[in-house]
Amino acid sequence: MLFGKEHVKRYQETDGAEGHDWNGTVTLLLTTVGRKSGQERTTPLIYQEDGDDYVVVASKGGADDHPLWYKNLEADPQVKVQVRGDRFTARARTATPEERPRLWKKMVAVWPDYDEYTRKTDREIPVVVLERV
């Protein structure tokens, strides 16, 4: 089971032939710029398409704090995305309160554990929309 740095490396080397399909779902690579380090950080994340956009969830397994990649994109919403061999720049934004329920349902359909994660934390787990620029 790939995840973490090895997942990123294999995904990049194979244009997602290894790493895109993961544990019965699909992943993309999200690259943010570290808000403290200024260095690029790449994270594999479960995603779904929503029209021309991609949707990911900042769950961190239901931890009480947001994942670092989410804090990074809050500081700088310009990100890089790789879906299979398609690499592009995107603008990341947190889903609006109006669109969040629909997008949450879409994400839970492919990763039911997201609902369980909400029971582990008091924070609202952000749903993030990646809009190609």
UniProtKB/TrEMBL annotation:
Gene3D superfamilies with a match to the protein in the record: Electron Transport, Fmn-binding Protein, Chain A
Superkingdom of origin organism: Bacteria
GO cellular component: plasma membrane
Pfam family, one: F420H2_quin_red
GO molecular function, one term: oxidoreductase activity
InterPro entries found in the cross-reference section: F420H2_quin_Rdtase, Split_barrel_FMN-bd
Catalytic activity from the UniProt record: oxidized coenzyme F420-(gamma-L-Glu)(n) + a quinol + H(+) = reduced coenzyme F420-(gamma-L-Glu)(n) + a quinone
NCBIfam families (UniProt xref): hi_GC_TIGR00026
UniProt similarity note: Belongs to the F420H(2)-dependent quinone reductase family.
Protein name in UniProt: Nitroreductase family deazaflavin-dependent oxidoreductase
